[in-house]
Amino acid sequence: MFTFFSKKEYLVDHLSGFVDIHNHILPGIDDGAKNIEESIKLIKGFLELGVTNFICTPHIMHNYHENTPKTIKKAFKLLEKGIEKNNIKNIYLDYSAEHMIDDNFESLLETDNILPLKSNHLLIEMSYLQPSINFDVSVEKIKQLQMFPLLAHPERYHYLNSDKKSHKKIKSMGVKYQLNMLSLSNYYGKEVQSEALKLLNNDQYDFVGSDVHNLKHLNYLKNNVTIDKRNLNKVLLLINKTIETFY
After folding, report:
1. In this model, does residue 64 exceed pLDDT 90?
2. pTM score, two decimals?
3. Domain count, the chain
4. Which of 15, 36, 190, 206 is the most exposed place for a label (fewest CB within 10 A)?
């Protein structure tokens, strides 16, 4: 997929050995893969790109995706059986979750119903419509548990992008940022792409993930996400940091 006559390169040509820390490939548990067959197709598609390490992160979202460590583990075991049945080798799987900062989140913290990434990072998100009113308090409580709060796709929160001070404030709180690969294209819209590149060039990101939910996402990632040399070097640094931290 290398574009010889172009100043841009396909991102997927640089994913061999990558550890995908944000995806929705567990079957039938949220708005990601609907069943084990879709999960297997997604995994096989990633394997073609050289991605063999996955930390599965289904949503935990009050009143929408009422997942718990127990339900997530059950889906994970189902996927493991599917991988064995399909004779897929040389793959590493783990599971965590993408935690919505909502009115139930602090209760999850207090009852230890959270699923960190590699024990010391907690993947969190907010609504795309409005900021979480308990975001600051939740971040402090995460840190009190000796974990790093890791905010998924900050470039997609339009209310943060409209306030120049918002990202500076959040980063000053010790929150880490995870870039969505698709945000480097106009898949979510030009405004999101512009903000992603701005945050990238300002060295605000710490890690990168696919956030793939379905084959449409994966195919778009394969065929449409290109990046120029300067920005590619910055993304490669994020890829390497993600591998070093979560492998």
Report:
1. yes
2. 0.96
3. 1
4. 190
